[in-house]
Amino acid sequence: MTTTGSLAPDADADAADPSAVARPARPALPAPYLRWLAGAQLGALGDAALAFALGWAAAAHGGAAAGLVLTVITVARTVLVLIGGAVADQLGARRVMLAGDAVMLAATLALAAAAGLRGSPLGLLLLAALVIGVVDAFYLPASGSMPRLLVDAGELPRALALRQAGGQLAALLGAPLGGALVAAGGLPAAALVDAASFAVLLLVLLLLPVSDPRRAPAAGSGTAGPAGPAGNGTDRPAGLLREAAAGVRLATGDRLLRSALLLAGAAAGAVLPVVSLLGPLLARAAGWGAGAAGLVAGAQGAGVLVVAVLLARRGAGGGRTPRGAGTAAAAGLCAAAAGIALLAAAPVPAAAVIGGLLTGAGSGLFAGRLGPLVLGAAPDSHLSRVQALLTLVQSAALVLSTGALGLLADTAGPRVPIALCALATGAAGLLALASPVLRRA
Known about the structure:
It is a single chain. This protein starts with 10 loop residues before the first helix and ends with a helix. The N terminus is likely disordered. It is globular, with a radius of gyration of 22 Å. The protein contains 17 helices and no strands.
């Protein structure tokens, strides 16, 4: 790595003055990563806008239809995500993402044309949901491995925090953008904007450096890596299943990955339904109105965003995983538990907003520290498969808990399941703090 003359007058001066070496310790993130991240966040914004538009169009067919559209996306993604991770590890993340963006570009253009001609019949919405879920199953593991392929090990935590901040910002802006697009041109307008974002991301990916250069030793023919001989998984479905199973065996056999994945599942099941499901139910039951529910959700998103930006600016030393990552992730869960408990007991909307903010800040710290821990612990040959397993664990936990919490809210009111979520989140955080493998991470 070269240094400009103004920062390093001579080698002797650097050796004599340790602070001179320490000043440039946090270099800018690589330009290819920043270009990819900008394109990815633009795509995430388009996806969030289209998701709102699909939900709005499905709601016209009734609540059951709207739930069915969302369920199709989740089920397709959950069923195929392990296969998607195996394909990404075999073919390379960039190739899989290029294929996924090309499919989604064609699909969103077709959706815009069909919706413009026929409106939004339920069959069309279900078909669009199925395509989105299938593409997500292959795309998400590949996308999750990209930071390891484009960023040096020491900058990985900062790169992931910046990605988290961008994703949260896209989520916050996506629904208002989707609403504006639906008001202006209906579902076709949202689909066309999403198509434009896929076109931009395709161009960004095409201009990235050679695909997956850091995987080259593991991908070569005849290598004796954990993935097995190259080509087996891509030639036959049975080979892909073996590769997917190999990823599961690796993750469950590694104490650190196993502990981190279990913690991620617990957090997904206990934290994510609070603001998306139970917060609106609480606002309705308490007579606060939709505005208060929106403020709570916005406060939670703001908490995640602020913590992610701070982590991205602060960075971390010590390689791929930040110092004390496991302890920080556990502390984040404990903070989130306190916020959820405040939400459960909130007598007025202002207290609920504070609870949402604390919940977001805690979950942001958790995600910002657990993400580098999981990605940094995965071997190069299994990056996408470990990311696929992370997606599967979180999706499965969320699906199971959301249904159970919704039923409990119907019978006992929303405050009881919110309090249970606080207890579960706090217990997960305390168990993580007591785990030697996570404390040492």
